[in-house]
UniProtKB/TrEMBL annotation:
This is Expansin-like EG45 domain-containing protein. Residues 18-122 form the Expansin-like EG45 domain. GO terms for biological process: systemic acquired resistance. Keywords: Secreted, Signal. Residues 1-15 form the signal peptide. InterPro entries: EGC1/2 (IPR044206), Expansin/allergen_DPBB_dom (IPR007112), RlpA-like_DPBB (IPR009009), RlpA-like_sf (IPR036908). It is found in: Secreted. The keyword Ubl conjugation does not apply. GO terms for cellular component: apoplast.
């Protein structure tokens, strides 16, 4: 039991917070994989995660933790989504992670446009 508790504490301690937006198809070409289709549970990394392409292929578990605006005060849905970084969200990107529309819709109301998130390596 102690191992489980320590494992949970390590996961919580490593969780980072940021914001997420979403982008719509087509998802190819991407900065990481060109015209290779990587499905729809994907995301683009902002400068905070990109690290000169080192983010390519990394997977993150993303969970909505709250609103960023007054328009949709409670945008979050329960649960989380695991996404793979396949693209770069260029300077001026409005979120830490730019989720595919499908991934964003799994964890939040798309009408919110931008949400507060917690993310951990998956």
């Amino acid at each position: 039991m102690m191992v489980s508790i320590v494992g949970c504490l390590a996961t919580v301690a490593y969780a980072a917070e940021g914001t997420a937006t979403y982008y719509t198809p087509p998802y190819v070409p991407s900065a990481c994989y060109g015209y290779e289709n990587k499905g729809v549970m994907i995301a683009a990394a902002s400068d905070a995660l990109w690290n000169n392409r080192a983010a390519c292929g990394k997977r993150y578990r993303v969970r909505c933790i709250g609103a960023t605006n007054q328009g949709i005060p409670q945008p979050c849905k329960s649960g989380s989504v695991v996404v793979t970084i396949v693209d770069y969200c260029p300077p001026g990107c409005q979120g830490t992670i730019d989720l595919s529309q499908e991934a964003f819709s799994q964890i939040a109301d798309p009408n919110a446009g931008k949400i507060r998130i917690q993310y951990t390596p998956a």
